[in-house]
Amino acid sequence: MSKPEAEFFPTGDVGWTRVAGDADGLTERILAADEARSVATRILRFEPGADTSPNGVQVHDFWEEVYILDGAIHDVTLGRTFAAGEYACRPPGMRHGPWTSPGGCTTFEVRYRAEP
Known about the structure:
It is a single chain. By secondary structure, the chain is mainly beta. The chain has a single domain, classed as Jelly Rolls (Sandwich). Helix content is 0%, strand content 46%. The protein contains no helices and 9 strands. Strands 1, 2, 3, 4, 5, 6, 7, 8 and 9 form a 9-stranded antiparallel beta sheet that branches. A hairpin with a 4-residue loop joins strand 5 and strand 6. The mean pLDDT is 93. InterPro entries: ChrR-like_cupin_dom (IPR025979), RmlC-like_jellyroll (IPR014710), RmlC_Cupin_sf (IPR011051). Pfam families: Cupin_7 (PF12973).
């Protein structure tokens, strides 16, 4: 299966759901997903004060591209803060996080697998 076909639609029609894991303060809007391949396009929201430390450093087996729409997140491991307008492209196996967000943050993310 692949992500479903979708013409333009208001993203506000998609509800926010809690992100799986031990950290509180993270919600997501899944815009398109291929659950069989564990990939998705989503909007991720860090509530003010969110801290993903309980989830630890993240490493996954898919590509992930992230664009910060508003606010800022702080990478605890790197000791760096990233803000609106910044972008990351993470290949499979790249370690990142955990994150804190004192003032909150919203990102747009695309996750996909490279075809052999």
